[in-house]
């Protein structure tokens, strides 16, 4: 094999390697490229995800406000219950004093 034949053979081998690489590259891009429809679907899904996140944030805010309202109502109800229990305790104490007074007065009138 002469030097010229060796150079030509090497050039042919490199050209075939280049053609095979180009063909493989074309195949990969052909099968992996994203179509226009797929891009539109991805954009639609991204928009729906964004809307879902906004809805979630609104729901969380509403629940936090509702929890604060219910906590406030519970505190007020507990305060009213405590006041009612104090009033009932005072009324029972007064009733006991009145019974004791009535018993003293009626036993004092019986002895006379």
Topology:
Blueprint: H1 3-32, H2 36-111
Q: Can I get a quick summary?
A:
The protein is mainly α and 112 residues long. The protein contains two helices and no strands.
Task: Describe the protein's architecture and organization.
With 112 residues, the protein is an all-alpha fold. 95% of the residues lie in helices and 0% in strands. It contains two helices and no strands. It has helices spanning 3-32, 36-111. The chain starts with a helix and ends with a helix. The relative contact order is 0.03. The model has no long low-confidence stretch (mean pLDDT 92).
- Mean pLDDT score: 92
H/E topology pattern: HH
Span between termini: 155 Å
Low-confidence stretches: none
Report the radius of gyration as a whole number of Å.
47 Å
- Helix tally equals 2
Please identify the oligomeric state: single chain
Fraction in helix: over 70%
Overall strand count: 0
Percent of sequence in beta strands: under 5%
- Gross morphology is rod-shaped
Structural class: mainly alpha
Characterize the main sheet.
Answer: none
Defining traits:
112 residues; 2 helices; 0% strand
């Amino acid at each position: 094999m002469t030097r010229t034949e060796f150079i030509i053979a090497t050039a042919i081998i490199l050209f075939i390697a280049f053609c095979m690489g180009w063909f493989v590259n074309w195949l990969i891009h052909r099968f992996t490229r994203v179509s226009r429809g797929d891009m539109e679907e991805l954009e639609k899904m991204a928009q729906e995800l964004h809307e879902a996140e906004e809805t979630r944030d609104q729901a969380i805010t509403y629940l936090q406000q509702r929890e604060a309202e219910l906590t406030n109502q519970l505190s007020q109800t507990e305060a009213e219950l405590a006041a009612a229990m104090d009033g009932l305790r005072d009324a029972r104490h007064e009733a006991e004093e009145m019974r004791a007074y009535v018993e003293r007065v009626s036993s004092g009138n019986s002895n006379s």
